């Protein structure tokens, strides 16, 4: 939710801010303020008794979104427009940090939101893995989890040091209100990042440690690893044990050397604090212990979880990348069935549910409006927790009806109940211009390659060219409080997509498959999706084998078994796409040495840090960029 400030500062500057905050629609930019075509409901919402949307399709597409965010050397290509990237993502101690997912439009891996996404994606499977399995999405989910957790394993250097951030969003002392954008001033595809990144600075690993602590990141990584262990154990217990070991060691570090990255004096964490200000760390420690209890059933972790849960009671009224309290009510109730957690969960939910305790704000058409930024993602977080809680109570429990009704209302709002779908590539009327770089400037179609990055930026934000590739499954930010919105990259507060918006959302969708019944849905596949393979610059489309019914139009795979996905078999059998054994597990394609890092002024110059007014090469451009940014800061504060 805070990333908007970054984008604002870094790139668009003053004009977009003004436009976004007023209700003006300018003729020249051709981006009208849109209102959903259907009027608000005048009666209390009644949830449909039969599924109104194909949630199996939404599920499939939501997982597909994470392929657009994938970093590293890909074992296979799912999207014609995404390939190997993070080619020089090596830590100070030689760690391979190439895997995982990028945060949003950019190629950052911020510790806290990354860890939260990983934990939540595992939480989804923990609660609704059976529903996923019934529509053949479980293998995909587990594979995705491993991709994310393997990054965390590598990021955990030793008992005192771990990588809390990969990538440089910007440089510069905040105190002097100066920044020099790096990642945030790169507008091309991740596949070419190392060639064109402004200042020539590659993805750099920043460490949190006992002396410079980030207990919330350690706790969230620990939670993600324990949660991943919980869902992976039945498929590979050695892997699960390895994850538990990391989780316990991170927990120890977080508790023995407590502290928050908001107090770090490292430049990277000062910027992390600016975009993702962590409120406290005690809730992530509770979360870590809670997930260790979920994964091990060892009662010492229950005691630890309760202790830290009490210590973080100020976080009990939110669930997000920052606050875990409300997620803890539901997780702990699921694990213990204790009334204490029941009551806390209900108190939280009553804030949203119709009735005397309702305090939440809503749009006229019924979207819970937690924050102007990411309102659809937030409402998905709430919907997930309600569905998870109702599942734990039993769908027939008296409280469950209210919870499921609310969750269905929120999800269906986002899927098109009022004529507009907030999920890219779903429905008839969905966002055409998500704020996402690689689906616009893809490595196979990047017309402005080689131009100054400020020109590329101007085209990205200012042009009304639609996204060149469909960013299937991405949940966009959300509307204004009156349900109006812009479908436009320059109005990124509506059109931003992030890994965390889709995380609990994916679980809520699986929850609805569980709620309505597995037999109401058919597995959905890539059949008929436009993944970019017909583009003239695309490489040859992978030919999946006949017994793969996930990535193909093939029929006849037995339903509800992992075997319908060939990529799952590749993972489990350690084979390449063509079936040959993977001999070298090393994932980085480049050798373990620094790539062509260059100072501004050489061949990278045309794409180096630049500014609106720059006409010269990057060394000059840097100076004028600073001026621009200072103005932006002054306006914001
Ligand atoms: C916003 O735009 C609508 C439609 O053009 C108009 O009716 C309304 O008065 C405007 N609101 C503000 C606050 O300018
Ligand atoms: C972890 O690694 C760092 C960097 O190499 C080193 O300074 C530190 O002593 C190590 N900690 C432990 C517990 O080995
Ligand atoms: C299970 O996980 C371990 C640890 O990551 C790995 O070494 C092993 O190859 C995995 N086994 C299978 C069958 O995938
Ligand atoms: C940062 O440090 C200050 C001073 O020690 C402390 O009051 C504050 O709680 C810390 N912030 C967090 C989030 O831990
Ligand atoms: C949190 O717990 C402390 C200590 O028990 C208490 O003083 C405080 O009021 C609690 N805060 C909330 C929001 O419950
Ligand atoms: C790929 O295709 C687009 C349009 O079809 C073209 O503009 C572009 O130059 C091509 N090549 C590359 C390497 O992007
Ligand atoms: C570095 O750049 C030089 C000259 O541009 C090129 O010959 C070389 O292959 C590059 N090395 C890498 C690792 O990309
Ligand atoms: C900028 O650099 C390019 C390539 O190095 C060069 O062709 C061009 O003349 C330079 N422009 C200025 C204004 O220095």
TrEMBL record:
Pfam families: Glyco_hydro_9 (PF00759). Residues 1-20 form the signal peptide. This is Endoglucanase. The lineage of its organism: Eukaryota, Fungi, Fungi incertae sedis, Mucoromycota, Mucoromycotina. Its EC number is 3.2.1.4. One of its GO terms (molecular function) is cellulase activity. It comes from the Eukaryota. The active site is at residues 487, 496. Belongs to the glycosyl hydrolase 9 (cellulase E) family. Residues 603-620 have a biased composition (Low complexity). Residues 55-508 form the Glycoside hydrolase family domain. PANTHER family: ENDO-1,4-BETA-GLUCANASE (PTHR22298). Residues 21-41, 598-620 are annotated as: Disordered. It is an enzyme of class 3 (hydrolase). Coiled coil: none annotated. It catalyses: Endohydrolysis of (1->4)-beta-D-glucosidic linkages in cellulose, lichenin and cereal beta-D-glucans. The keyword Signal applies. One of its GO terms (biological process) is cellulose catabolic process. Keywords: Carbohydrate metabolism, Cellulose degradation, Glycosidase, Hydrolase, Polysaccharide degradation, Signal.
């Amino acid at each position: 939710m805070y990333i908007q400030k970054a984008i604002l500062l870094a790139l668009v500057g003053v004009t977009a801010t003004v436009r976004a905050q007023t209700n003006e629609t300018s003729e020249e930019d051709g981006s009208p303020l849109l209102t959903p075509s259907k009027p608000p409901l005048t009666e209390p919402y009644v949830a449909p008794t039969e599924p109104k949307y194909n949630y199996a399709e939404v599920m499939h597409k939501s997982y597909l979104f994470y392929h657009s965010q994938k970093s590293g050397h890909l074992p296979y290509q799912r999207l014609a427009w995404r390939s190997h990237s993070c080619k020089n993502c090596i830590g100070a101690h030689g760690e391979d940090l190439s895997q995982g997912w990028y945060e949003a439009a950019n190629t950052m891996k911020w510790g806290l939101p990354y860890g939260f996404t990983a934990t939540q994606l595992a939480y989804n499977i923990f609660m609704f893995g059976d529903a996923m399995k019934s529509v053949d999405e479980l293998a995909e989910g587990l594979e995705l989890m491993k991709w994310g957790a393997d990054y965390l394993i590598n990021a955990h250097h030793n008992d005192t040091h771990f990588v809390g951030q990969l990538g440089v969003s910007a440089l510069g002392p905040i105190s002097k209100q100066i920044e020099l954008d790096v990642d945030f001033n790169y507008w091309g595809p991740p596949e070419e990042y190392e060639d064109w990144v402004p200042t020539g600075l590659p993805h750099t690993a920043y460490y949190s440690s006992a002396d410079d602590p980030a207990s919330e990141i350690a706790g969230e990584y620990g939670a993600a690893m324990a949660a991943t262990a919980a869902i992976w154990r039945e498929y590979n217990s050695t892997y699960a044990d390895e994850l538990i070991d990391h989780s316990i060691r991170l927990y120890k570090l977080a508790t023995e050397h407590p502290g928050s990255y908001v107090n770090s004096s490292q430049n990277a964490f000062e910027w992390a604090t600016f975009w993702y200000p962590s409120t406290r760390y005690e809730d992530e420690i509770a979360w870590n212990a809670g997930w260790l209890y979920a994964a091990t059933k060892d009662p010492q972790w229950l005691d630890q979880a309760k202790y830290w849960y009490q210590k973080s009671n100020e976080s009990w009224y939110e669930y997000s990348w920052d606050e875990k309290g409300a997620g803890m009510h539901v997780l702990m109730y699921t694990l213990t069935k204790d009334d204490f957690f029941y009551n806390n969960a209900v108190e939280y939910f009553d804030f949203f549910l119709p009735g005397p305790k309702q305090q939440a704000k809503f749009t006229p058409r019924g979207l819970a409006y937690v924050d102007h930024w990411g309102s659809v993602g937030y409402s998905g977080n709430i919907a997930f927790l309600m569905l998870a809680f109702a599942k734990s109570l039993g769908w027939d429990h008296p409280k469950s009806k209210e919870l499921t009704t609310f969750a269905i209302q929120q999800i269906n709002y986002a899927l098109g109940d009022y004529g507009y779908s907030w999920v890219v590539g779903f429905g008839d009327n969905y966002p055409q211009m998500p704020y996402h770089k690689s689906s616009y400037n893809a490595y196979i179609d990047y017309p402005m390659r080689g131009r100054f990055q400020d020109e590329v930026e101007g085209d990205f934000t200012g042009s009304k060219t639609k996204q060149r590739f469909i960013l299937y499954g991405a949940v966009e930010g959300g509307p204004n409080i009156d349900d109006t919105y812009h479908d436009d990259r320059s109005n990124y507060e509506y059109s931003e997509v992030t890994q965390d918006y889709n995380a609990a959302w994916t679980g809520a969708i699986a929850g609805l498959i569980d709620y309505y019944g597995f037999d109401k849905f058919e597995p959905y596949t890539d059949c008929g999706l436009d993944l970019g393979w017909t583009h003239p610059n695309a490489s040859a489309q992978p030919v999946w084998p006949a017994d793969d019914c996930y990535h193909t139009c093939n029929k006849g795979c037995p339903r509800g078994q992992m075997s319908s996905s060939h990529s799952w078999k590749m993972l489990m059998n350690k084979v390449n796409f063509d079936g040959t054994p993977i001999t070298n597990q090393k994932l980085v394609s480049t050798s373990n040495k620094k790539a062509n890092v260059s100072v501004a002024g050489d061949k990278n110059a045309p794409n180096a840090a630049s500014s609106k007014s720059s006409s010269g090469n990057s060394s000059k451009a840097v100076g004028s960029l600073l001026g621009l940014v200072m103005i932006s800061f002054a306006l914001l504060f």
